[in-house]
């Protein structure tokens, strides 16, 4: 029988391992799906991202949606979070651009500068 202290220690160690595993190499792709995003075409962008991730079997990539990102006129907007790197915000997205982002940024590690918010503002 283990003491409560021992159990707490085991639990903490297990949690640390999970945290390390979770944050290492994980990529999160977030699509703005507020009304303006949807009317600008965010839905096919989201579907393309999901399809590309599945097609390529990218295990550590999560595609999710959020509400308002705050820049209606640049919708559809996609944010990419890679652990240890700055967030990259892609704007005026299309399904074709979404495919390129999966290949260039997510798979090959090259940010596509011309699609980023910094390039269009
Ligand atoms: S309502 Fe358009 S970005 Fe928030």
UniProtKB/TrEMBL annotation:
UniProt keyword list: Iron, Iron-sulfur, Metal-binding
Molecular function in Gene Ontology: iron-sulfur cluster binding; metal ion binding
Superkingdom classification of source: Bacteria
Name of the protein in question: Ferredoxin
Organism expressing this protein natively: Anaeromicrobium sediminis
Upper classification of the organism: Bacteria, Bacillati, Bacillota, Clostridia, Peptostreptococcales
């Amino acid at each position: 029988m283990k003491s409560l202290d021992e159990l707490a220690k085991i639990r903490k160690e297990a949690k640390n391992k999970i945290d390390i595993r979770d944050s290492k190499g994980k990529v999160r792709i977030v699509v703005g799906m507020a009304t303006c995003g949807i009317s600008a075409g965010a839905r096919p962008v989201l579907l393309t991202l999901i399809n590309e991730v599945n097609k390529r079997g990218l295990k550590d990539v999560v595609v999710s949606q959020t509400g308002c990102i705050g820049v209606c006129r640049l919708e559809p907007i996609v944010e990419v979070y890679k652990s240890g790197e700055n967030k990259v915000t892609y704007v005026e997205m299309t399904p074709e651009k979404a495919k390129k982002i999966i290949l260039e940024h997510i798979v090959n590690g090259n940010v596509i500068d011309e699609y980023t918010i910094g390039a269009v503002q």
